[in-house]
Specification:
It is found in: Cell membrane. The chain has 343 residues and is mainly α. It is built from 17 helices and no strands.
Length: 343
C-alpha cells in the first residue's frame, strides 16, 4: 500500500467510528428541548388567533340587528386580550428556549470539531487551506442557527395555524375559502423552480466562492511579514482580488436566476394581492346573495394567514439549505478517521 493509498483510506468515513456515531447522535440528547420549543411555539401561535376571532365576533355582534349585548362584547374583548397575552408569553418562551438550545448545540459541534481535528493526520491538514477549516469551525457551525433556533417551532406553527384557520373558514363558506387559496396555489406552483438542479449548483458554487475568499484572506494575513520584508504587495493580494471577482460573478448569476421566481412568490403571497382576491370573490358572493356581508370579515382577517406555510418555506428555504450543507461539511470533518493511538 502506497502513502497515497494510506492517506485515502484514512480519509474515508467509517460508519462505525465514534465520530460518525457521535454525529448521528448529536441532537438526540436535545430531543425533549426541541419538542418543548415546538409545543410552546404552536400554543402561542394558536392563541394568536384569539384576537382575530374576537374581532370577527365583534363585527358580527355590532352588525347584527337589535340591541347590542354589552356583556357578550366585553367577554369577547377579554378573550381576545387573553389570547394575545398567551401568545406573547409562549412565543417568548419558545424563542428563548430555542436560542439556549442553539448555543448548546453549537458548543457541542465546536468541541467535537476541536477534538476531531486534534487527532487527524498532518497530511490531511496539508491538503486543505486554513480558510476552509476556519469556515467549517466558524461560519458552518454558526449557519445551523436558523435550523436549531427558528425552524422547528416556526415551521410547525406556520402549518398548524393556517390549517386551523382553514377548517374554521370552511365552516363559514367553502366557496370563498377555495377562492382565498388561489394565492397559495400560485405560490406553490413556483416552489419546484427553487429546487432545480441549476439552483442547487449555483448555491454550491456560492459556498465554494465564500470558502475561497476566506482562504485567500487567511493566506494574505499570514504572508504580511514576508511582504514587508521582500515587497510584492500587489502579488500578495492578487489571490484575494481574484476570489472576490469570482464571488461577484457567481453571486450575480445566482441572483439573476432566483430574482424572477422570488418576485413571483412575493407578489402571490403579498397582503394586497391576497386581499384583492378575497374582496373580488366576496363581492361576487355577496352580490349574488350567497354570503352575508358580516361573513366576509373572517376571510379578510384570517385569509392572509393561509399563505404563511408557503411564505415560511420561501423565506427560510435558503437558510435551511445553507444549514443542511454546513452540517454536511461538519459531518465530513468529524468522520475523518484519526491516526491510531500507540498501544
Amino acid at each position: 500500500m502506497t502513502t497515497t493509498d494510506l492517506a485515502q483510506t484514512i480519509e474515508q468515513p467509517d460508519a462505525d467510528s465514534a465520530a460518525g456515531q457521535s454525529m448521528t447522535q448529536l441532537l438526540r440528547p436535545h430531543l425533549r428541548s426541541f419538542a418543548a420549543v415546538v409545543i410552546l411555539q404552536v400554543i402561542g401561535a394558536l392563541a394568536g388567533l384569539a384576537p382575530l376571532l374576537a374581532v370577527v365576533e365583534l363585527g358580527r355582534t355590532l352588525l347584527s340587528p337589535g340591541p347590542i349585548d354589552h356583556a357578550h362584547v366585553w367577554t369577547v374583548v377579554t378573550a381576545g386580550a387573553a389570547g394575545l397575552l398567551v401568545r406573547l408569553l409562549f412565543t417568548a418562551a419558545s424563542s428563548g428556549l430555542g436560542h439556549v438550545l442553539d448555543s448548546r448545540v453549537q458548543l457541542t459541534f465546536r468541541r467535537q470539531l476541536a477534538a476531531s481535528l486534534g487527532r487527524v493526520p498532518i497530511g490531511w491538514f496539508s491538503r486543505r487551506r486554513t480558510g476552509e477549516l476556519a469556515k467549517v469551525v466558524g461560519e458552518d457551525v454558526s449557519a445551523v442557527h436558523p435550523f436549531i433556533a427558528h425552524a422547528p417551532g416556526e415551521l410547525v406553527a406556520a402549518f398548524v395555524v393556517p390549517l386551523v384557520s382553514l377548517i374554521y373558514l370552511f365552516t363559514v363558506d367553502w366557496r370563498l375559502t377555495l377562492i382565498a387559496l388561489i394565492p397559495v396555489v400560485l405560490a406553490i406552483a413556483l416552489v419546484p423552480l427553487l429546487m432545480l438542479p441549476a439552483r442547487t449548483r449555483e448555491q454550491e458554487a456560492y459556498d465554494a466562492a465564500m470558502g475561497r475568499i476566506a482562504s485567500s484572506v487567511v493566506e494574505f494575513v499570514q504572508g504580511i511579514s514576508v511582504v514587508k520584508a521582500f515587497g510584492g504587495g500587489e502579488r500578495a493580494h492578487r489571490t484575494f482580488l481574484t476570489a472576490a471577482d469570482d464571488f461577484v460573478s457567481i453571486f450575480s448569476r445566482w441572483v439573476r436566476g432566483m430574482s424572477v421566481i422570488a418576485a413571483g412568490m412575493q407578489l402571490a403571497l403579498s397582503p394586497p394581492f391576497v386581499l384583492l382576491i378575497v374582496l373580488i370573490g366576496g363581492a361576487a358572493l355577496i352580490t349574488s346573495g350567497g354570503l352575508a356581508p358580516a361573513d366576509l370579515l373572517p376571510f379578510l382577517l384570517l385569509g392572509l394567514g393561509l399563505t404563511a406555510p408557503v411564505a415560511a418555506l420561501g423565506h427560510g428555504f435558503d437558510d435551511l439549505q445553507s444549514a443542511g450543507r454546513a452540517v454536511g461539511r461538519i459531518k465530513d470533518v468529524l468522520e475523518v478517521r484519526p491516526l491510531p493511538e500507540p498501544a
